[in-house]
Design goal:
By secondary structure, this protein is of the alpha/beta class. The protein has a 7-stranded mixed beta sheet with strand order 3-2-1-4-5-7-6, sandwiched between helices. Helix 1 crosses helix 8.
């Protein structure tokens, strides 16, 4: 079983692939899409959960997503059909860094995907290229809430603390107009959901040749979370506007 298949199973009970509950997602979308008739772009959209939630509650919204996973995009298309919004959703199977559009977007989203661009500031630089005048960026990024262990740094990289993360964004020419720091409940719920879903799949499919591998993966990831980064890692979601054009 490859990494993408494991990720799909892990997120069955938590389709937003970040430590955010449904109310937090809804509030972030409200701040990012204040009118309801915007053009929205998700760079690294996966199965399109952010796009689909926005489309389902905003009949005048148009959305596009970019991802390298054919399986995830196919899942997004199926859900768009189920919701009755396929005519307002365009999906692109390509590297997000190579994506170009003749029209700009009012909201550009990249939540939990900054690694694809090499970090927070390169992701903001990519988002800026697609942003319409007066538009907004919704970005989600990890930070160190407490001093991390060397093992945690090896896993997540050289993250900053929360205040420094916001300072870096401001110095790069952005003004936060809304933000959300994931609560301990959101952080824990996300981890329990992911590794619990994997473990449940393995226990429900004991005859599958991948069962042992999936259960071992769930056990290893749960242990890493509890012993390596649970007490240090945090997650912040920011709605940003350009400080100046």
């Amino acid at each position: 079983m490859n990494r993408e298949q494991i990720s799909r199973i892990a997120h069955v009970d938590h389709p937003i692939k970040s430590p955010l509950d449904d109310d937090s997602v809804r509030r972030l979308l409200e701040r990012g899409l204040p009118r309801g008739d915007e053009r929205m772009l998700d760079l690294g959209c996966g199965s399109g959960e952010w796009l689909l939630r926005a489309l389902a509650t905003r009949p005048d919204l148009h959305a596009e997503g970019v991802d390298i996973s054919e399986d995830a995009l196919a899942q997004a298309r199926r859900e768009a059909d189920r919701l009755g919004v396929p005519e307002r959703l365009v999906l692109h199977h390509q590297e997000a860094a190579d994506f170009a559009s003749p029209q700009p977007f009012d909201l550009v989203v990249s939540v939990g995907a900054t690694h694809a661009y090499g970090g927070l500031l390169p992701t903001l630089a990519a988002a800026r290229k697609h942003l319409a005048p007066g538009g907004r960026v919704l970005i989600g990024e990890g930070f160190w809430d407490r001093s991390p262990s060397p093992e945690a740094v090896e896993m997540f990289g050289d993250l900053a603390d929360l205040a420094t993360t916001v300072d870096l964004v401001v110095a790069d020419g952005w003004t936060p107009v809304h933000g959300h720091v994931s609560t301990r409940g959101e952080l824990d719920a996300y981890e329990w959901a992911c590794w619990g879903s994997l473990a449940s799949w393995a226990l429900d499919h004991p005859a599958d040749p991948d069962s042992g591998h999936v259960l071992a993966t769930a056990t290893a990831r749960r242990t890493e979370w509890l012993r390596t980064y649970r007490d240090a890692w945090g997650f912040v979601s920011l709605v940003l506007r350009r400080t100046s054009s």
